[in-house]
Predict the structure.
Amino acid sequence: MGQNSIDMSRKDISGLLNTGERLLELLEEMSANNEYEYQKNRNIFTSEYVKWYNKCLPLIRSMVPDKATRFESLYHTNKRSGMNEYTYTVQDYIHGIYFKDRPKNYTDTIISKRVNEQISILQASVARTSDFTFDMESFVKINPIHRVDSSSIIRQNKLIDLDFFDEHYNSIRTEINTCFKQGFYMASLELSKRLINSLLVDLIRSNFPLPSEGHRSLYYDYLKKDFRGTEELLKALSEKKQDFDINPEAIDYLIELIIPMEPKKKPESHSFGAIPKRENIQALKIEETMELVIEIIDFIKK
């Protein structure tokens, strides 16, 4: 029997995560290098990335098949009408494709986000192994490549570390992080869900800005005189995803991220809902979800 995800040792899995972090470091360091060093590091990245990807893919397919399509689409995709900032893949980067009238570090930043998301998916696969529970704090301690500093420790007490385009949202982010740091997990979760709901409204409104087109009803309920709930907004996004000038898989992945935040309730369940634990909230990928919505909105506005 060959080495598959079940047979992989803790050392093997930690090695993949370690390599992924090293690839990210290469990308982050490139902008500070001269042309010769830049090309040298770029060659190292492309060579090491392909080997890393080929080792990760069987594991992802085996342990988190629901994430495999997204993992692959970050590397390459055939489902796009054209190449743009959002549909740009790691394979494009490996082939030496850059954006015209943009500095190289702009493209490097895009690829950093792609690789970072792939690492996140890899971590999800590790969490599903029966003999290995991934502990980020322990991993950081035994892997000096992370070089944990005071800012990293502070970051662990934040649920969201994003700068929003709206100062009101930044104020809400501060309140969410305060609740999370103090252990008020239900409050931080409910506020996060409310913020995501507002971001979804902004997303749909950005893509359909003309009131004369009758699109306001996609995100606004005229009978209730209020914005629609998250479930209705996700339904609208799913039905209209072909009308967005981005890869429809991005909308599918966004919906996939949000659905676990809105679990169905049974008649016998407590009407207020269960009180979440810290690890429950962290598993929901709230920051990743918000960042994805912001990226799509930014692309639409451009």
Observations:
- Residues 1-6, 130-155 have pLDDT under 50 and may be disordered.
- DSSP finds 13 helices and two strands in the chain.
- The first strand starts at residue 220 and ends at 221.
- The chain has two domains: 10-142, 167-301.
